[in-house]
């Protein structure tokens, strides 16, 4: 999709369809008012007739305008003017593009930057238009021989005033970069486990690095991990025929000596549970157990595309978790790179086993902060549902920064505690710690486990089990979260 900004007068724009917002109680946005006056009051008449009320996400297409230079007008309801929020604004954008993608139009002009929204500037609105449009337009076709019909839409022009042009341009750059990062994350996540293996993820990371001047990649093989003593990570991959990879992307956008932000993403390209085998129903969705890793790749690509003036390291430990004669067995004790021994009471708690070694490895980059993201626990979905990502960490300031970024990116987070009382649940009779802490507080005990490996730096953990993909039915698919949140956090750091 081609996204651009245009300051030409609305009646001078070359487009197949112009998108304008209206509110409830017959209030028109500035663009709607102008278009109305240029077209003999057609919008006011339709409102008066009751054909559209202006409720949020309501749409009405006017597709025949004799004597007008405009081909089509798409009216979009925003709801009550005083009650418009960022979420409602995004909802209206989503219904807009859902209608547009089915129309016989190749280009649209979106005027919705002119909508007033408390505490949101033109950068934010421009960026949201691109993020939401791109999200709805995403269509996975890679493994289909019979393709779904593609939209005819090729070009989205975002119309802005001269005064808002500078802000909108920033939003355009950010929106395009983040949307592309989300697309990449969703594509990698939606690819099935027999296509998207650890080796495939490593190849994709290599491509991302080669498309940027400031990024290098290193792929650590199992022999390298052996030499580093990553006994915990390697114990998981031992049960799989696919060789594990430790992917390291190094983006140098900042000063040479400035400490990097390190992102660590769980990259389980398929999690069958291992010997503690998962039940069959819905097991296909465990191809999504690499969403943390895919989000790290998508976020680094976006950061590079925005040329953020900071240093960022992305680490993706990638493996399968399969049942096999050589797989981990319940009761096995392994030794992590940090030296701590771990009793594996459940082989399905494998994410923390690969993450702990990757987190230990992160130390070598002398990080400013380390943020890991992982589809780590089903318990997170029980606790928080599929609305916010779970946030846990050892530093209040870092957690506060992430929450602030999540609010402006509309990619929500909710913090859970990792108090010392919970650590009791990880006690083992035969090792330094156990890899599970029983039924209670599963998301917290998983984070407690990770926290034993992150004592030397500022660290936050994002449990994205409920937010990285939509589950079940025909709506199943990756969401691209938390790429918007992480991108916002990095933009904020770059501006700090
Ligand atoms: N990848 C799963 C977590 C998961 C489950 C994410 C369902 C999304 C939906 C993880 O590896 C896992 O299996 N965790 C176990 C931990 C348990 C054995 C302590 C879980 O959540 O059941
Ligand atoms: Mn598992
Ligand atoms: Zn898993």
Per CATH, the superfamily of the largest domain is Zn peptidases
What is the overall pLDDT average?
98
**CATH topology-level name of the largest domain:** Aminopeptidase
Total number of helical segments?
15
Any guess at the CATH architecture of the largest domain? 3-Layer(aba) Sandwich
Bound molecules: ligand BES, manganese (II) ion, zinc ion
User: Major β-sheet, in short?
Assistant: 9 strands, mixed
Structural class: alpha/beta
Strand content: 15-25%
Description:
The strands form four sheets. Strands 7, 8, 9, 10, 11, 14, 15, 16 and 18 form a nine-stranded mixed sheet that branches. Strands 1-6-5-2-4-3 form a six-stranded mixed sheet, sandwiched between helices. Strands 12-13-17 form a three-stranded mixed sheet. The chain is elongated and about 80 Å long. It has 496 residues and is an alpha/beta fold. It has two domains: 2-159, Leucine Aminopeptidase, subunit E, domain 1; 179-495, Aminopeptidase, CATH 3.40.630. α3 packs across α4 (122-137). Helix content is 35%, strand content 19%. The mean pLDDT is 98. β15, α12 and β16 (413-415) form a beta-alpha-beta unit. Residues 271, 273, 321, 348, 350 line the site of manganese (II) ion (MN).
